[in-house]
Amino acid sequence: MIAQNNIRSTNNDPVESSESSPITGASNGGAGTSRLFRQFGSLFSSSAPANDPAGYVEFGSISDPAASSGRTLGTFAGVFCPVALSMFSALVFIRVGFIVGNAGLYVTLLQFIIAYVILLFTVSSVCAISTNGAVEGGGVYFMISRTLGPEFGGSIGTLFFLANVVGCGLAISGCAEGIIQNFGPTDGSDSGSIPDGRWWRFLYCSSINTLMLIVVLIGAEMFAKTSMLILGVVVVCLLSTYISFLTQGPMDVNIPHENSLVNYTTAKYTGLQADTLWSNLHSNYTKDYTSNGNQVNFAVVFGVLFSGVTGIMAGANMSGELKNPSKSIPAGTLSAVLFTFLCYMALSVLIAATTTSTLLQNNFLFLGPINLWPTFVTIGILTATFSTGLSNLIGASRVMEALAKDRVFGPLMNFVVKGTYKSNPIAAVIASWVLVETILLIGSLNTIAQINSVLFMLAYLATNLACLGIEITGAPNFRPTYKYFTWHTAFIGLLGTAIMMFVINSIYALSSIILCLLLVIALHLFSPASQGAQWGSISQALMFHQVRKYLLMLDSRKDHVKFWRPQMLLLVSSPRSCCPLIHFVNDMKKGGLYVIGHVKVGEFVDNDSSHDPTIEEYTQWLSLVDHMKVKAFVELTLSKSVREGIQHLIRISGMGAMKPNTTILGFYDEEQSRDFFEYEESPYKTNEFDGNGIKLFPYRKSGETKSLGVVEYVRIIDDVLRMKKNLCLCRHFHRLDKQMIARNNHIRYIDVWPVNIFEPKNEDPFDVVSQFMMQLACIINMLPVWKKLELRVFLCESEAVSENSAAFERPAEHRLDQRLKLLRISASIHKIPEWNKDIDFAKHRNILKQFTGTSDSNQVMVEENINRSKLYMQRINQIIRDKSNATAVTFMYLPTPPATPSVDYKEKCHHYLDLLTELTFDLPPTILVHGIDAVTSTTL
């Protein structure tokens, strides 16, 4: 326990009873705050000085990432080259002809425009996130997880990891296809440098995959350094293709031997001709000879096209190696997108103007034979696909490493963290390599392309969703330096990716979304909860935005009794001794507001700078709510007295129209408290609040003096009623055992005694207090566990009242039965014969009124009357106990406390509480209830 220099704290009991006990000051809030800032600072800054005692936060380009260890890449080498190479991939030399030949030039250009519009808006979202804070390793996963929170971030990160794995398999398949085309059998013969066949192709793919593994194991920096050279080679090869289109004349090109869909062996290349361009303007879908003759359509073509341009995240994936991610990612990605778009548009037009659709549909690798230097095409295919595969393999391993470091899946991925050598995630690279091998078993490049497109689109959708959500919430700290982002760009990107996912393949799209949702649920249930607090979750921002809006719309002036529900404020001193009561009130709230309130007695000292101790204790109470598994808010206050503090809590708890209407106190008695956190058979047993020799939430032990006096307690009761709040006093709830109720058939009843024992009248079953009492009992009886119990209402009539029963049209029992039916309360009515035989109410009514607020304030108490009243209460208590052998909970009428000021007020308070103590002695868990407003309705 830390010293509270500025607080003079007496640690008085807010409500002293077996249900609640005193609480002392709480733990190291100052240290926890500093630690929180250090964690937050380390999250956004990779270069925070180790000797900084408080930590600091660096955002975006404000920090100096160049000073960070391991960050060596600039914009061109680290972003532009990887993105451009990934967007060329297998598409540029292998599949553009397939797209133009089937979709036609018009549709091809339209598809490229659609794809690049989606990409452009997604890039805007990526740029917005990457310029709003320092980006660490993990790229897009890091951005999404720190924006959407651990559940959505972890699930989308997992799917993005799988997308990179599939993208690597796609690139390898394209590379192997190029090798077979150039070095395998031709013209249907067995001649060729290497054999061909399904398993031979798998062997070649595995060899390429293994070669990539070796390169990546050496390190990402090597790939980055060579990416500029590789991109230069690809651009030279692409230029040779453009030159060939412009210079080569007509020729016949062989059809690949694996194409068994046609019976001819050659097709025509015409060179630049208007007739050829005209014939290729419109769609002409046929069958795909590489996937067992599956029919080609718009969706298949777009899936293949989009799979080739999914590399916009390649630069973001290298965020851990970039000198300045917040500047390099936007500049490098946008320039690469523009560059590849122009290349693809030019290539599509030239193909449509020079090559017949027959050749385009039946030889996807026609660029080699028509090239002035065929070797250039081979080199282009191999370098483009190999570099794309490398980029995806590196990206997959980095995302997997980030998932492992964040412990998104708990200890399941610890092997990745342990398997890191010199900042290179060896274990993650090998695991990614194994998964790529699995993808290669699919075989068909076009099939892999559709899966790849859907997974990447889901990642893009999540990125746009993250930006859209955080922009809508209006979070003040979302201030990206990238100026071309608005919620409109995020929404268009989100809508475009969602639609095109299902256009490509609705089954793949639906499956990936279901997988994503399952991952979200699994991570929500099993992922460490601390991450949400460290990263921040957009769900919290969205909920705040919506809750504030609806709270403003919730107008207390429009409240109607039909829709009344209990809004509970439970005042607790120590939760250790009142766990069953906390749980019971959670059941009784019926979906309403539930606030657990606590008063810490003390005051600020002006000449000291220490902080409010309730700030430190607040997190401990939140942990308590989590442990108890109750849906409650916590309100703490510091005041000079318990009474004053409770007044504060009643006034300030809740917000707007959602404020407590019912206050619940523990009963003031001398019963020994029980520690439910230590009690072996307690369902609330825990060591969470014990540590370093300090027990949080201490309670009054046997023999310790009560710090809350009787008069102050009664005045608190009076205050609650004067503040127009319904009131409940709870006694014996340390005896409540819900588990025993569930499994024991001996406990069968919930009892309601709707009679004011201090002043019995025939109208008692129908007054506001009694109806409020029955409403609470009915609510409890509606819940699972409690539903099996029978609700009993006891009708207590005195002889004196019965003499005047002719004044009523019907007997009280009949009127009560009709009332219960009108209120739709299923309860049995029980008359008490002993009431008339053993007790003379007329004799005691005026005596008992002395101790309530309905008496003459100047009436002096007589000792004889006090003794007679106690005997009266003991007789009533015996009657109730005789009826309560199988009762789980008893609801009783709470009379108003003595009026203030009055003669002998202090004595009256003592006698008032003594009589309530005698009345409830040795009963089952009992609630003394006083309602002030109508809460039931008989109308629709």
TrEMBL record:
Topology in the lipid bilayer is annotated as:
Multi-pass membrane protein
InterPro entries on file: AA-permease/SLC12A_dom (IPR004841), SLC12_C (IPR018491), SLC12A_fam (IPR004842)
Presence of the UniProt keyword Chloroplast in the record: no
Which residues span the membrane? 76-100, 112-135, 199-220, 227-245, 296-316, 328-353, 373-395, 426-445, 451-472, 484-502, 508-526
Molecular-function annotations in GO? potassium:chloride symporter activity
Q: Where is this region: Disordered?
A: 1-29
Q: Name one GO biological process term.
A: potassium ion homeostasis
Domain called Amino acid permease/ SLC12A: residue spans: 85-569
* Localization of this protein: Membrane
**What UniProt keywords are attached to this protein's entry?**
Membrane, Transmembrane, Transmembrane helix, Transport
Q: Where is the composition biased (Polar residues)?
A: 1-26
Highest taxon in the source lineage: Eukaryota
The SLC12A transporter C-terminal domain extends over 580-670
GO cellular-component terms in the record? membrane
Pfam family name, one: AA_permease
Which family is annotated?
A: Belongs to the SLC12A transporter family.
- What's the protein name? Solute carrier family 12 member 9
